[in-house]
């Protein structure tokens, strides 16, 4: 239902009569609005408290795998001490389509917030037109009354304002601002995800290269052994079956080397794609150094309290909660009367020469009241949908907080476990090398046959492979810890939520 009245240049008594009618209409509308049934606020999902990580941290620190320290700094990947990795991450952040897309989404959210904010401010516009027209002398107007051609002109200024008595427009605008902040946090989330993906892939490439080096050394050793056994077989000092076993060993380890070379090519292609480049750029990436540098694993103070404010994905989820709360307020405001004010003043004439004369003045002041009475349940449905979206946003936030705590605890546990296994694997490699050296001495003295030497040699390469894989997993676990801790991101705490304010 819409009630409108207008004031025009008429007699003063008629103006005051219209004012009285208009006031009565507004009063009647407000009285009618008090009879509308507005749904009472319903119960909503509650924001979960951050889970505790104190026991996980204490256990890791007691065993020495994790030390107390600061939060990750912004360029956390530099802790691996690899200049190639540093340049790859910086290039990906600058050139990746994923980053540009996240930035574009943030720009879109910013413009939508500005558009929504415009609804809460005054609107002002000016316009004008001029025309020359000739009318037919054979139309319904007699020719003697026509003055062909004739001119017309108009200048006008328009002013509008939405009173927004129930804050519906303001809350809608705040919701867009919250969505903009969520999009800004998503830029940091995209940056973190991209740096994580580059680092994961580069460390895999480095680990593959190291395993390939070990396999290559094993191939060379096996080929030398095969040649030695073949020569002894020609001298009648070895059997044919041992020669075939030597050939079989070379074939097996060569197949493993080829598999690693294929995995390296795929990893290079992945790195190139993450940087927003073609596969040829992946081939140009410098070979990583042989051994992975494992940075110290640190658990910062205040982890239990601050984790939810160190992860950009959690902050983005929280801003979406705020945006959903604003949407509920805007939906409730739609149940109340909406009053708009409009004003116009200008000059209008059918002769351009008289445009600036006093008689050409026109003005109009109007107000419009929109009062929802019956809409088939549409307003209730929109309010219910807004409340459901709020509950979904809250539970999404709660889920992210829980998963973040689990990811941090998992990373701490993996680092602890892998560092222990690495220590054991290093001791095992040292023992295998000692055994190999002893068997070589015994072979040189004629005590053991060469198969014993080959078996000891295989143990050395096997332990070296196991150690390389464990160190690769330990590096990935540290990356996972950087990710769980937000990768250097930080956001101030939310003091209160909109649902508590309403």
* Number of structurally distinct domains: 1
Low-confidence stretches: 1-14
Please outline the major beta sheet: 5 strands, antiparallel
Name the strands of the widest sheet in spatial order. 1-7-6-4-3
The CATH architecture assignment turns out to be Up-down Bundle
Strand percent estimate = 5-15%
Structural class: alpha+beta
> Could you tell me the number of beta strands?
7
Radius of gyration: 39 Å
- Mean pLDDT comes to 79
The helical percent reads 55-70%
Rough outline: elongated
Count of separate DSSP helical elements: 12
Q: Tell me the span between the first and last alpha carbons.
A: 28 Å
Spell out the CATH superfamily: Outer membrane efflux proteins (OEP)
For the record, the CATH class is: Mainly Alpha
Say what the CATH topology is: Outer membrane efflux proteins (OEP)
H/E topology pattern: EHHEHHEEHHHEHHEEHHH
